[in-house]
Amino acid sequence: MHRILIDTDPGVDDALAILLTMKSPELRVEAITTVSGNVHVEQATQNLLTILGVLELSEFPIVAKGEAQPLIKPLVKAEHVHGEDGLGNISKLRNSDGSLRYPLANCEISTLAGVDLILEMVDRYSEELIVVALGPLTNISRAIQKDAESMQKLRSIVLMGGVFREYGNVTTTAEFNIFVDPHAAHEVFNFGIPVHIAPLDVTHQVVLTGERLNAEIKGRSDKISCFLIESTQACMEFYREHIGFYGLHIHDALPVGMLTHPAFFESVDANVQVETEGNLTSGMTVADLRRERQGTISNASVCVQVESDTFLNHFFQRVLS
């Protein structure tokens, strides 16, 4: 079993990843930290409590609110994709009796800041803890800056971020998580601990269509099924208008799968660098992923291929179990 800390900016795809994580017996979630990204960290923390409420858990991981702003750049958010609240506007939904459709989990927020909780977890589970980073890497970078010696005890970081052979999803050259805080990503990639990356190149291989989602939950009325339909609708509408199909990519679920079912994935070692200065290329991730290239000192393992149908079947099998 892997001990993990999730660092997240929920986000519809973050929500799906958290559901998958909490339903994966191979993973023990010790803590979850929030960060500004898809939404501001205040909203991200509310969204996390909403997701945990959907899961109806008997006990909760430790939850802490993290950094509100990137290291240097002004914050860029993505409510236009994920809905005003970041979860498809489900925070507005009410039952017939006027009660909230998706109430917040009865889960305390730690008095520790997110960065301090990360450092505490690393010390507590030295050489064991894996960080699963689903948003901008601001919290991780701040923790490195605050106590690099402790952070060297991390077993690894598995993250969704970057793009190499495709176009970006926020600019032509950059993926959102890296674009929001490229300086943090640069620091994390060059810190010297194992980093495993699921970039857009591979997350785009897994397409969840509205048709598939409806087929999977047909006849079901449980809370998770209702949440899947209602939280993804705004995002799917955005995809229909701007991407060309009614559905979405479940980006953040892939690093979870890389931990639990590595056989579904294929990766290459590479030296990944981040452009922090370019006017046209800020947040661009640069690496040579050609297998025949030898002699380059690698700082990351980059996922390049996934058994997409197998992974999507696995996702539904777990989340709806």
What does this structure look like?
The chain has 321 residues and is an alpha/beta fold. It is built from 13 helices and twelve strands. Strand 1, helix 1 and strand 2 form a beta-alpha-beta unit. The strands form three sheets. An eight-stranded mixed beta sheet has the order 3-2-1-4-5-6-12-9, sandwiched between helices. Strands 7-8 form a two-stranded antiparallel sheet. It has a two-stranded antiparallel sheet with strand order 10-11. It is 37% helix and 17% strand. The radius of gyration is 18 Å and the shape is globular. Helix 1 packs parallel to helix 12 and helix 5 crosses helix 8.
Search tags:
37% helix, alpha/beta, two-stranded antiparallel sheet, 13 helices, 17% strand, 321 residues
- The residue-averaged pLDDT reads 96
The tally of strands reads 12
- N-to-C terminal Cα separation, in Å? 19 Å
Stretches with pLDDT under 50, minimum 5 residues:
none
Radius of gyration: 18 Å
- Please tally the helical runs, counting DSSP H or I stretches of 4 or more residues: 13
Order of helices and strands: EHEHEHHEHHEHHEHEHHEHEEEEH
Shape: globular
Beta-strand content: 15-25%
Main β-sheet: number of strands, strand sense, barrel status?
8 strands, mixed
- State the helical fraction: 25-40%
- State the strand order across the main sheet: 3-2-1-4-5-6-12-9
Structural class category? alpha/beta
